[in-house]
Every structure is written in structure tokens, then in C-alpha cells.
Amino acid sequence: MPRRRWELRDRIARLDPERDHLEIYQLSAGREFPWDYTRALEFALFRTYCVPSISALLAATGEFRDRPQRRYDDTSLLMAEIAAHGYDSPRGREALKVVNRAHGRFAISDDDMRYVLSTFIYDPLDWLDKYGWRPPHDHERLAAFHYYREVGRRMGIRDIPAGFAEFRAFKQRYERERFVFTETNRQVGEYTVGLFAAWFPAVLRPAVRLAVRGMLDEPMLRAFGFQPAPRWVGALGHLGLRARALALRFFPPRRASVLGVSPRNRTYPGYPTGYRPADLGAPPPAADFPAEHLRHP
């Protein structure tokens, strides 16, 4: 493998994972593993829909039924804005304001907020351990934790665990206790699988649906009420992703970050040109929205 391939990892190794967490996260998510982070964060969000309290709220909004692509694009672009520009930059603060306004309308428990935040840290790291062209450096692991802890603090999420291992233990315990099948889990899960399939030509969509099921672990399959895919589907997907990782070891390092750049965005063509973070996000809930899901003063 060309020595040049390791230059960003070596740069990351010289940085401090707590003090320099934003720079490390930008290098990791924007230059070393951009495709992997995108896929892993898609599955991280998908994973949160296994929690009945989360899926019930999402089902009540109707957004996943009526506008799944827009909801996906809003979430991915807002999080990319915060990462690309920094949570204390003007665009980062504007994106956080949109996120906080959206969450502030609804009755969301602190535990659910902490859990969703935890998936953004650990699911990408677990993905990279399996499918990255190299394993994450310890500084990348800790930087992801410190980065999202700061983002969570600015989102008003209380009692975020103070340590990397402690927060992972919270996530694992939460999934053991809260991953339970409900009909809203199944509904939101099916809308999401349908969204993934819609990105491909119609002739390939049944295969994509099967492939997505092949990537889900047993707790997720149970919580969604999905039938498992044949074992060969998961094995084939694993081999394909490992082959991709092996090939990428011989690619030169990416010279420019792709964070906050979305030329193939389906809802906002050409983003970020002509758009601001304030242009993103779902509309307020309708007047007849179920009161039990609304946050009351």
C-alpha cells in the first residue's frame, strides 16, 4: 500500500482527540471515509426506528409516509452543515437552530434524544471496523464521541454520559430494553426500505429491499417484524463491502472534503448553492396533530 495513503491517519494521530475533535471528525467523515459515514448514518437513523416511542412520533407526523425523501435530505444536510462548518460557525448555529426548533415542537424524552445521539457516534465506528479500508484510529473514535457530545449539548440534551465506554454501555442497554416490535416500527421501517429502494431503477428495487434486510441484525429484524433475508444475501453484501475496502487501500487520499457538498441531492438540486440551513426542515405539525406527541409549555 502506498505510504501516501496513510498521511491523513498520521495527521489525525498527531492531533488531540478532545481539543481537536472537530478537525479530526471533518478529516474522518469528509475525506477518509465519506461514503462509509453516509451509509452508516443512514443505518444509524434506521436503527432508531426500532424504538416504539420514536417510531410512534414519526408515524404520527406522516412525514415518512408522504415525504420520506425530503425528511432524509433535511436530516442529512443539516447534520452535514454542522460538521462541515462547525457547530459554533454561523451556518452551524443556523442548522442547529432548525434542528432544535423541529425537536422542540414534540414531546421527546431525554432518553430517546440521548439514544439517537449515541447511534451517530457508535454505528459509524462499528461500520468502519467491519467495512472501512482501515480501522478507525483511537483518536477518531474519541473525537466522534467528543464532537457529538458537544453537538448534543447545544441541542439541549441533558445528562449525556461523560465517557466513551459509558455512553456505549448506555446505547447497548437501551437497545436491549427498548427494541420491541410495534406496528409503527413496521410502518416506518417499510417506508424507509421503500425510500432506499426508490433510489434504484424499478427492476432492481426488489433486490434492494432484500439486500437491506440482509444488512439488518436480529434485534432490528425482530423490532421491525421483518422476515430475515436468506443468509447468502448478507454474506454477499459483506463480501462486496470488504472487497470495496480492500480496493480503496490503493487509492490516493482524498484532497478535499465532501462534507456539506451534495451534488446529487434529490430535494434541493445544487445544494448548498442558493440555500441556507434555515430553508430546510419539516413544516409545523397540523392543527389536528395528536396532542400526546406535542410538547406543551
TrEMBL record:
Highest taxon of the lineage: Bacteria
Name of the protein described by the UniProt record: Oxygenase MpaB family protein
Limits of the ER-bound oxygenase mpaB/mpaB'/Rubber oxygenase catalytic domain: 53-236
Keywords from the named record: Oxidoreductase
InterPro entries: MPAB, MPAB/Lcp_cat_dom
UniProt GO MF annotations: oxidoreductase activity
Top-tier EC class: oxidoreductase
Region feature Disordered, mapped onto this chain: 276-297
EC number: 1.-.-.-
